[in-house]
Amino acid sequence: MRTQKRCLGYVALVVDDYDRAIEYYTDLLGFHLVEDTPQPGKRWVVVTPDPESDCNLLLAKASNERQGSFIGDQCGGRVFLFLQTDNFWRDYHSMKEKGVHFCEEPRQEEYGTVVVFEDIYGNRWDLYQNA
């Protein structure tokens, strides 16, 4: 019998600047800064949409040209991350008022309400609420 819980703990997102990324994800998307710890030559920066969540976003500053080439295109132009909400319209309007770039108008799908937006780097996200 399995008793250990498994989940994704961190998803790394390559960024160009720690402070710029922290500001965007906390101020515009409403994420919480979980940790910002200096390490030799880098920082361990973690944000999360919900402090009770087990899944966090690790903001990883590109340390070379190759890594830098993936900033904003970590998934080849496809939607990369999916931000689930319990109140789509609250979050949509809040993000829109703060200047988040939406690629389309919200739409109703079989599975729920969804809209695609791009983060500060151009990574595509879905904001969605299950039906």
TrEMBL record:
Output the Pfam families linked to this UniProt entry.
Glyoxalase (PF00903)
Q: Where is the VOC domain?
A: 7-130
Q: Which domain of life is it from?
A: Bacteria
According to UniProt, the name of this protein is: Glyoxalase
